[in-house]
Specification:
The protein has 393 residues and is an alpha/beta fold. It is 42% helix and 15% strand. Bound molecules: pyridoxal-5'-phosphate (PLP).
Length: 393
């Protein structure tokens, strides 16, 4: 008898992957320029030149230095460089000891959840949320509880959160800028969240950890600020990734910040190492640890995403679609034109428009449009969006 749970997870692909595969099939049938695929969150802008330069320079180093196993938490110099960058940018006081290099945000979150949680514990997140949280939390025998969004702004509903926290609550997972809504949680809301977590931790006599999922931290538009939560709440673990900021999703590189101020730092820090060990990560990719350190404050051309956002938001609003105003990431969250978002996405397919229904994000009735695409895809898709709208008039 094999693992039923793993069999279930592996035998159905995510709805996003399913739609993407169908889009590929259509591209082969009718030509790529006639298909408007907004399904995947794969960065469309190239990695910055500094990444290529760093790789080429590193290729001149002795191979045993760039391709060897690093220590499990990562190369000490890389961790120091990242800590110093965070200290400069967020007025923090981290050292290399506070940084644990990982294979991207997925690994960072998985490690944090495993390090903190026991079977039966509860983790809370806010809809709409990244669907993989469910399998990472349930994978350790814990329970994922989902708090519906505060409408119409898609901020955190603090009253609903208060009702959801129990003595079993081990952690709260926050993702801002958010996939799929594009919303950035305000400082005011986050301060109120922190106050509630402090009160509840005191009431139940155990820390409730705040786990921040931040692959989109740098992808924000205009004057929007993304508060750095270790500055507000001692029991915060930051899960970061270079997948989106440096357009390196396939290279699997990121880190966890484990602040010394954590209530149980002396136990959590080894537990993070233990979780990474159990999960078999060994170490983060050595070459890309060095690349990340050399490009620590660089990003791809975020302006291209802003321009795509404006084009799409303006175009869809003009056609009468109702969109959640996005301040970051590269997703637009749009109200489906019928209650059943799956049915709406099926109709969209008629026009070779590939959108993702929001049900798996825990927030039915919407679609996610990933605008990390070429500008011409957005421009050329507008007549298709118009025809889709006409069907409902
Ligand atoms: N968290 C969110 C909200 C994401 O959107 C993604 C990827 O799209 C991840 C985590 C996983 O990112 P990574 O590629 O760094 O593992």
């Amino acid at each position: 008898m094999i693992s039923e749970e793993c069999y279930e997870l592996g035998s159905k692909s995510s709805i996003i992957r399913e739609i993407f595969s169908f889009g590929l099939k259509r591209k082969a049938e009718v030509g790529a320029d006639k298909v408007y695929d907004f399904s995947l969150g794969n960065p469309s802008i190239p990695a910055p030149e500094s990444v290529k330069k760093a790789i080429l320079e590193l290729m001149e180093q002795p191979p045993e230095e760039v391709h060897a196993y690093s220590p499990a938490p990562g190369d000490a110099g890389v961790r120091r460089t990242i800590a110093e960058s965070l200290n400069r940018r967020f007025d923090e006081s981290f050292t290399a000891e506070n940084i644990f290099m990982t294979c991207g945000a997925a690994a960072s979150l998985n490690i944090c959840i495993k390090a903190l949680g026991n079977p039966g514990d509860e983790f809370i997140t806010f809809a709409p949320f990244f669907p993989e949280y469910r399998c990472w939390v349930e994978g350790i025998g814990a329970v994922l509880k989902v708090v519906p969004p505060h409408l119409p702004d898609f901020q955190i509903d603090l009253e609903a959160l208060e009702r959801t926290i129990t003595p079993e609550t081990k952690g709260v997972i926050v993702n801002s800028p958010n996939n799929p809504s594009g919303v950035v949680y305000t400082e005011e809301v986050l301060k109120a969240l922190v106050k509630l977590l402090q009160e509840k931790s005191r009431e139940y006599g155990a820390p409730i950890y705040l786990i921040t999922d931040e692959p989109y931290r740098e992808i924000v538009y205009g004057e929007v600020k993304v508060p750095y939560l270790t500055r507000y709440y001692d029991n915060t673990l930051v899960c970061y990734s270079y997948s989106k900021s440096l357009s390196l999703p396939g290279e699997r590189i990121g880190y966890i910040v484990i602040p010394s101020r954590l209530a149980e730092y002396s136990r959590v820090s080894p537990a993070i190492a233990g979780a990474a060990r159990v999960l078999g990560f060994v170490c983060a990719p050595s070459l890309f640890q060095q690349v990340a350190a050399r490009c620590v404050e660089d990003t791809g051309d975020i302006e291209a995403y802003r321009s795509n956002r404006d084009l799409l938001l303006e175009g869809l609003t003009r056609l009468g679609y109702c969109c959640v105003p996005p301040q970051g990431a590269f997703y637009l969250f749009v109200k489906a034109l019928e209650e059943d978002a799956y049915a709406f996405c099926e109709r969209a397919k008629k026009y070779d428009l590939f959108l993702v229904p929001s049900d798996d994000f825990g927030c039915p009735g919407y679609v996610r449009i990933a605008y990390c695409v070429a500008e011409k895809t957005i421009v050329n898709a507008m007549p298709a969006f118009e025809k889709l709208m006409e069907e409902y008039r």
